[in-house]
């Protein structure tokens, strides 16, 4: 899905962005993430992102295993910036958004700010390839990915739109499956930080195979 912004390189992106810590949330370049915003601090974040014109929000997971504070947990060092591409007011004080992933980023430092939401100085240059659509998708083992997906759906008694899957380019397929996957924050973070699309697909396949093996050998319901 194209967005109405021409990001030719990391230099076109701001050095400081608001961040939205959300465990288990995985946004990837050109992926879409719906958000239901109701907390006052994040309503203010959206207002400011729209007012500033960049419309960017950094989705990032809190690193709960290394956090001393529940109110302000440590953050993982890599997140993904998304641009607000759909916006609606609910009428009851909430915002209904859709973010479209732009590029991953590394956190350089979290800033001390007066805003109720957190802000970070970030580096997009490490992920410059994210701005090139479908880069590296020819290296993805699509056949193996679909085999594992078929097994996963069968074990969990799920159905999907196979016509849509068969027509999806590799990048869209891998990233959508990764974002929708039922796995925990460590697995989601590993897929986010994958060096390239091929590696992300391999991580997704490996994690799914481990989950399937666990279910088959122990009867454990596995990751849901």
UniProtKB/TrEMBL annotation:
It is an enzyme of class 3 (hydrolase). PROSITE patterns: LON_N (PS51787). Its EC number is 3.4.21.53. One of its GO terms (molecular function) is serine-type endopeptidase activity. Transmembrane segments: none annotated. Residues 17-212 form the Lon N-terminal domain. Keywords: Hydrolase. InterPro entries: Lon_prtase_N, Lon_prtase_N_sf, PUA-like_sf. PANTHER family: ATP-DEPENDENT PROTEASE LA (LON) DOMAIN PROTEIN. This is Peptidase S16. It comes from Nitrobacter winogradskyi (strain ATCC 25391 / DSM 10237 / CIP 104748 / NCIMB 11846 / Nb-255).
